[in-house]
Amino acid sequence: HMLGQYYTNPDVVDLINAFCIRSADDKIADFGCGAGTFLVRAYARIKYLKPSKTHQEILKQLLGVDISKFASHLTMINLATKDLSKIENYPLVLCKDFFDIVPSSRAKWPETSKETIETLSGRKLKVEIPTILDAVVGNPPYTRQEELEAYVENYKDKLQNVLKQDWGEKVKLGKRAGIYAYFFLHGLAFLKNGGRFGYI
Question: Do residues 138 and 62 lie in contact, with contact meaning Cβ atoms separated by under 8 Å?
C-alpha cells in the first residue's frame, strides 16, 4: 500500500471496461496494470464482442505497464494462460516506469514504437507497442505527494517535465498533486481523438 498498489474488484473493472471498450478492434492500455485484472477482463470483453477473434489478435490489442517486476509478470502470466496452446504467447507487458513511455504525439513514429519485452523464460523480444489508443483503463497508484520522492530523487521534476512535453504550457499541476494526477494527464496523451478514459 505504500506504493499505491491496490487490486481492483473484477465487478468494478467490468463496469469501467464496458464503458470504455466499445469495439472488438479497440486498442487498450493499463499503465499501472498490477496483476492485470483490467487487461484480463478487457480480453474477455473483446472475446464477447467478437468470439472469432484469436488469442494472438487480442494480445496485440492490449498493452500493460507496471514498474513492479512481480506485478508485470503476474499480468503476463494471467494473459498468457488465456490460451496455453499457442507457442507465440507473449502479451505486451512492459516492466518500466510509465513516465518513460512516449506517446505518439511527440514521438518519431506514427502509430507504434518498438520496445523490448522479456518473456517468462528470460528471452528478450522486440515488439511493437501501440501508442495511439482507443481506451486507457486502470486503477492508478494513489499515494501521498510527499512519498513521490521517497524512492527516486527529483521524481517530481521528472513528472513535471513529462507533462510539459505532453501538453506544453496548457496544463500545470500544483506541487501537492499525487502521482495519480500525473497518470491521468500522461495517460490522456496516448488516446486518439474520441478515445475513452476509465480510471478509478
Answer: no
Q: pTM (2 decimals)?
A: 0.87
Using only C-alpha atoms, the chain has a radius of gyration, in whole angstroms, of 16
Residues 6+ apart with CB under 8 A from 24: 46, 49, 50, 53
Residue 82 cell numbers, joined:
488465456
CB atoms within 10 A of CB 15: 13
State the Cα–Cα distance between residues 24 and 33, nearest whole angstrom.
20
Give dist(CA 80, CA 59) in Å, integer.
9
What gap in Å lies between CA 76 and CA 35, rounded to an integer? Answer: 8
DSSP run (H or E) holding 138: strand 133-138
Give 70-105 pLDDT, tens digit per residue.
888 899 889 989 988 866 677 889 888 999 888 866
DSSP code for 73: H
